[in-house]
Description:
The chain contains eleven helices and 16 strands. By secondary structure, it is an alpha/beta fold. Strands 3, 5, 6, 7, 8, 15 and 16 form a seven-stranded mixed β-sheet that branches. Strands 11-10-9-12-13-14 form a six-stranded parallel β-sheet, sandwiched between helices. Strands 2-1-4 form a three-stranded antiparallel β-sheet, with no helix packed on it. Helix 5 (181-186) links the parallel strand 10 (171-176) and strand 11 (191-194). The longest helix has 20 residues, at 252-271. The mean pLDDT is 97.
Amino acid sequence: MKAYIVKKYGKKEILHLADRAMPTIQENEVLVQIHSAGVNSLDALIRNGEFKLFLPYKPSFVNGHDMAGVVTQVGLKVSGFKPGDEVYARVPDHHIGSFAEYIAVKEKALAIKPTNISMEEAGSIPLVGLTSWQALVETGKVKMGQKVFIQAGSGGVGTFAIQLAKHLGAFVATTTSAKNIDLVKSLGADLVIDYQTQEFEEILKDYDLVLHSNKDKNVLTKSLRILKPGGQLISLTGPPTQEFATRMGLPGYLKFVTRLLSAGTKRKAKKLNVIFTFLFMRADGNQLGEITKLIEAGIIRPVIDKVFPFEQTNEALAYVEAGRARGKVVVKVKE
């Protein structure tokens, strides 16, 4: 089969199209013919080597985390899927490889694809959908009437998280550029801040939750300050915490490192009487199944900027890295 592999780590490296052996499945896995693969910033960070301390993939390996496709084979202990099922998933860490024609996926990571969207739309959903769900539902426990600030509202996570937060009954504020104001309003944003001309910390006050996705440390500090006492900031960009290291099963020295990295931010949060949490989303087919229900009910719709052909996977990744995508970018693997 054809697949895009990381031959060696590096920011200037590209993915290489190569012939790889067909995956073999374990008894709890499903073989999927991939039709589409969502492209995420995480894919670039993995290629760059920025996560090799926590996720030590040994080159060469197939990159890619999101996919939608059709089941072609199931393992002996698989009970929830059969050949011919249309499925989608954010494949589990240590088992990535969706920039390929086929992939073996653990059953517990899979969900049936929503019936009312295309393969390309389905491939765009899993990582951003699960990130939003785990931030707003599982960790943040957002309730009716709460105030939620979602940064970068026109991005992949932002376009999904706005819709989910509105479904949960929250008042939603977000940041975007002037050209994307209409888009985020159409998704349900109540208050839109043009980050090019306005300072969010001068406008927002007493928020219950911030979904933080900016790498700027000053933005992190300002975001902590807009929370009300007892409020929570959930960061997708770090600093990583000792709790994250423990959940990932990392060795003791990395737990120590993450404790040091997050110590300053935690001190600031404690002084403000707010909570800081680092979220590194995980694959979860059951949660994806709940997301499927929301999509089929018309409560959440995918937002796609561009669909690239499989042979332009590197161009798709570069487009995502540029940071200007409105919604998601997808690679169409199977014509």
